[in-house]
Amino acid sequence: MRSPRAIAAVALVLLGACSSPPPSPALSAVWPGLAPRAQIERWMQERGVVGLGVARIEQGQVVEQMLLGQRSRERAEPLDADTVLYTASLTKLAFAVLVLQLVDEGRLDLDTPIERLLPRPLPEYPEWTDLQGDARWRQLTPRLLLSHQSGLPNWRWLLDEPKLRFDHAPGTRYAYSGEGIQILQTVLEQGLGLDLEAEMRRRLFDPLGLDRTALRWQPGFEANAADGYDLHGRLRPHARRARVRLAGSMDSSLRDQATLWAALVRGWGLSARSRAELMAPQMPIRSRAQFPSLRRDLDPSLADVNLAAGLGLVRFDNGDGAAWFKGGHDDFTGNFLLCLEAGQRCVLLMANDVRAEGLFPRIATLLLGPTRMPWRWEYPDAAR
Questions:
Q1: Of 11, 169, 177, 233, which has the most beta carbons under 10 Å away?
Q2: CATH among 3.40.50.300, 3.40.50.720, 3.40.50.2300, 3.40.710.10 for 4-86+208-378
Q3: What pLDDT, in 10s, does the model give residues 215-227?
Q4: What is the residue-wise DSSP string for 95-151?
Q5: Which pLDDT tens digit goes with each residue over 249-271?
Q6: Half-sphere exposure of 50 (CA within 13 A, CB side)
Q7: What CA–CA distances, in Å, run from 194 to 91, 144, 207, 290?
């Protein structure tokens, strides 16, 4: 049963959805003869996408939600606002908010080397023994880990030799690293003694009434959880993740995620200083595409939009000011959040079918208009 706070939050969302939302300049200009929902459904049919949730945020408020397709094709079950989907790496951005709350409270400094935060050297912890004999781990700080400047691969199991090692010196370039986020989780758990599952619940999920959101599988999700579908349309039942991993274990609904990111874009939960730090340029990004994460080929044109790492997100200049985005992906899941600071406008896309990612540039443009979003960097195939 939903808590009174959750019921109030749902009522506000539904009230906003039933009132007349502020019009997007894109909606009538891009497809004058077809409603956005019908256009998105047509695109989904063309690609065979099973299920997709779309939320639009204006002035920091959720004004529209579309639940399209099915959570399970085999059982012919529809996707709805409470269906639990895997958020994948959207977890990292929620984690960044928690970290900055600790900074606001004076419990953490982003630039303190992690060797001063841990009770014993990092390589003495079982998950990090591969780093024995390489002193570069001592250069790591929370800032470098959150902005993907650790010098580590995304995941060690993606390497030819599945052993964790530094590719380059920390702080010298951007390279997306789930391993780095997991190191920061170790630092906060072992160094500050935090139960991060409880902290995320207390700081983010409960205050916003996010009762369909958790960092590991909950039995209450069983009746309304989305299965996943890969590039070939093959089914994978929703994973029951038993371990909290701040690099990407969060399950959530479209309703909950829209509520969370609408709150963030309007400044909820952080001091003005930390909110600015979240999306301040930490390191320029000039790699031709985000993945493979250790690629060396460059795209100088990314300087035109000032593409740069923020903390748990990537930011750029869209002509009207700052903008930022965060994706979440695995072989059966595609999620994307794009926010424009001007007007506190966002589009949130959550799909239980990775084929939906091919539609993300078109849907975001349909709902927000031209944004200067560097789609080729995030989704090279979809942007062609």
A1: 177
A2: 3.40.710.10
A3: 999 999 999 999 9
A4: HHHHHHHHHHTTS--TTS-GGGTSSS-GGGSGGGGGGTT-GGGGG--HHHHHTT-SS
A5: 999 999 999 999 999 999 999 99
A6: 29
A7: 17, 20, 19, 31
